[in-house]
Amino acid sequence: MLKMKKLTKSNNKVIAGVVGGIAEYFNWDPTLTRIGYIILSVMSVAFPGIIVYILCAIIMPEAPSKYR
Questions:
Q1: Has residue 30 been placed in a domain?
Q2: 25 contacts: CB under 8 Å, gap ≥ 6
Q3: What is d(CA 56, CA 50) in angstroms, rounded to the nearest whole number?
Q4: Residues spanned by the domain of 22
Q5: Where, by residue number, does the polypeptide cross the bilayer (predicted)?
Q6: Which residues of the chain have a pLDDT value below 70?
Q7: Neighbours of 19 (CB within 10 A)
Q8: What's the number of domains the chain is made of?
Q9: Hey, how many other C-beta atoms are within 10 angstroms of the C-beta on 62?
């Protein structure tokens, strides 16, 4: 049976788990993804990157707990 991936916040959080969740979804290294997101945000005058992060933190569902 084919299991569908779902984009969720990561349990490996630094702030809200948004970038960590994106890294887990694409099987990327979370640290490099966070660095890339910071560089991209700073290059775009930081404001759009902050707004997108806040919106994703509100919209993205929480990851299921591994301890259930």
A1: yes
A2: 5, 7
A3: 10
A4: 18-59
A5: 34-60
A6: 1, 66-68
A7: 25
A8: 1
A9: 12
